[in-house]
Amino acid sequence: MAEKFTVGFLPLVDACLPILAAEHGFAAAEGVELSFVRDVSWATVLDRLLYGQSDAAHLVAPLAIATTLGRGRPAQQLAAPFVLGLNGNAITLSQALAESVCPGDGLGDPKAVGAALRDEVARNLASGRKLRFGVVHRYSSHNYMLRYWLASCGIRPDEDLEIVTVAPPFCADALGAGEIDGLCVGEPWNSVAVDRGAGRIVLATAQIWRRGVEKVLAMRADRIEQRRPAVEALIRAMREAARHFVDPANWESNAAILARPEYCNASPDLILRAISDQLILRTGGTPFAYSDFMFQYREAANFPWVSQAQWLYTQLVRWDGLPYDANEAVKAARVFRPDVYRSALKGTGDVLPGASSKVEGSLLGPTSVTAQQGTMTLTENSFFDGAPFDPDHLEQYIASQR
């Protein structure tokens, strides 16, 4: 009898791996049966997971950490044994703001756009107005990436401009209505805003952190231990789905699946843009090639690096205005579960890193690294400001950002 999982998700392209694992039979081949519950906000996805209406969730990674640490609600320990992808988000500005800070037809340079935005923010403040940006949740990589970029460019989030929460399916509506001046969201919602004439894509978050962690498959930690063999089977199925997802021969068929009403309920053409790294940045424009806009498979992209969880913890502390706490740092790091990922894929021939933590943002080009299984080369993973993150110096890193 198949092991059944109900998976909560939002209508985003990066919910693709569990969906495609089910649609292409990879889950069934592992003895797993998947059903899905679509929601419109991350808060609801989390509620379903915590109250047992779902077994697993497509979830923004910082929210899994915040929930474990009891931010905003009683603490419940979550675990993330699988990263669903790296990056895949963009920053889209209103037409007028985009023309002011990012002239030209392509993606902007993060430093140049940030400097121009700083001037625009100052002009607005002088006239008594704060620009307002939308992110999908307070505890989201979107929020942290946006804030990291703004702060590095000399803009003080919460003081110089306002950041509000907008659920992904409503981001294009909010931008079109003039309620926000810019947003950071995943696909297809940037492309929806572009097609409606509401905004222009000016940056990909991969330009801020080239290999930034994005969504994870999250579960209650106790449920992972209760269902360990089935969870490992699900990991193998999603890894097969990732291999299928990145093959250009499958892009159109996968876009058609994800576009269906029960999943993203969007145009397959919009979804194909993200999958194929060919975004249309402005209304009526032509496709703009940006490699690895989404990063779902190579370089063990699905491996839950502990150092990635630790970087997210540094941003949680930074933007919540909290002191560094060694015990909480350990709890945050333990949300990511490389041990489960390793045991799921051991003996399959798939690549497994030799370490579970690394210095993030330290590579500018291809670098061979040790592997537990297979051979492994990592490529550029830098932050746009060139500042690496060493997880052995958490407290110093946090202090350097204040």
UniProtKB/TrEMBL annotation:
Keywords: Cell inner membrane, Cell membrane, Membrane, Transport. InterPro entries: NrtA/CpmA_ABC-bd_dom (IPR044527). It comes from the Bacteria. Transmembrane segments: none annotated. Pfam families: NMT1_2. Gene3D superfamilies: Periplasmic binding protein-like II. The keyword Cell inner membrane applies. PANTHER family: ALIPHATIC SULFONATES-BINDING PROTEIN-RELATED, BLL4572 PROTEIN. This is ABC transporter substrate-binding protein. It comes from Erythrobacter mangrovi.
